[in-house]
Amino acid sequence: MVNQVESIKTLAVDIGGSGTKTIILDAAGEAVTKRNRVPTPDPAKPQPVIEAIATLAKEQGEFHRVSVGFPGVVRNGIVYTAVNLDPDWVEFNLAEALTNVLEKPVRVCNDADIQGLGAISGIGVELTITLGTGFGSALFVNGALVPNLELGHHPFRKGDTYEEQLGRAALDKIGDKRWNRRLEKAIANLEHLFNYDRLYIGGGEAKKITFDLPPNVTIVPNISGLLGGIALWRELPSEVIRRSPSPSPSI
User: 204 near 132, Cβ under 8 Å?
Assistant: First the structure.
């Protein structure tokens, strides 16, 4: 007889500035379906994004719980910033809204945090940055998350933030060559700032990197932003067995 916990399936959701993706993970965090994706609705207000997730979820099949990566500060399932989406997200209870629509327990976390959870070794100081519409970040100390770092909105150079200098709008404006030079400087800054053991770089624009990275820097596949979703449920599998419809707090 298959252990009930081992048979649990998690719907992992990654809400991005340009695309929203889903996949089903088994209890070990391995993908059991193919990733599906739709463009993030424009304007990216809560209701159309939730409707897009519901449509993607139906295409994925059976699942018992949901993990969501969101591009902004999230506390207890409630969104507090959404710079690259829409102001209507501020103070929106995404965990509760999705629980009501999907009728499954939902946990929500910052998308870069989830990307990091899918990549880190759990040893020492590890930093993750994501290069996409914006500039995401997540910091871990011996596997423990330091939540809501939001490094992208800190000053970087010439009065601009990391996101203003390295987000997709900047890449489109200045081109790959200058963007790579900026990123190389940013990595040097971050190493001095955090003295990390390892830096992981993810996100859709990581494929544009052309310079030689330091030995303690690793590019991780974009799907890590989905695969890391299993970590939101590792500590409380009994909640999933009960399949409680009430929203659960994010980490």
Answer: yes
Residue appearing with tokens 């955090």? 194
Q: How many Cβ atoms sit within 10 Å of the Cβ of residue 144?
A: 10
Burial level of 218, CB count in 10 A (0-12/13-18/19+)? middle
CA distances from 21 to 25, 34, 67, 122 (A): 13, 10, 12, 26
Structure-token pair, residue 66: 């949901």
Q: What is the 3 state secondary structure string of 47-78?
A: HHHHHHHHHHHHHHCCCCEEEEEECCCEECCE
Angstrom distance (rounded) from CA 216 to CA 238: 37
Of all helices (H) and strands (E), which one includes residue 35? Answer: none
pTM of the predicted model, to two decimals? 0.83
pLDDT digits (tens, 9 = 90+) for 175-222: 999 999 999 999 999 999 999 999 999 998 999 999 999 999 999 988
Residues 91 and 113: their CA atoms lie apart, in Å, by 19
In whole angstroms, give the CA distance from residue 153 to residue 151.
5
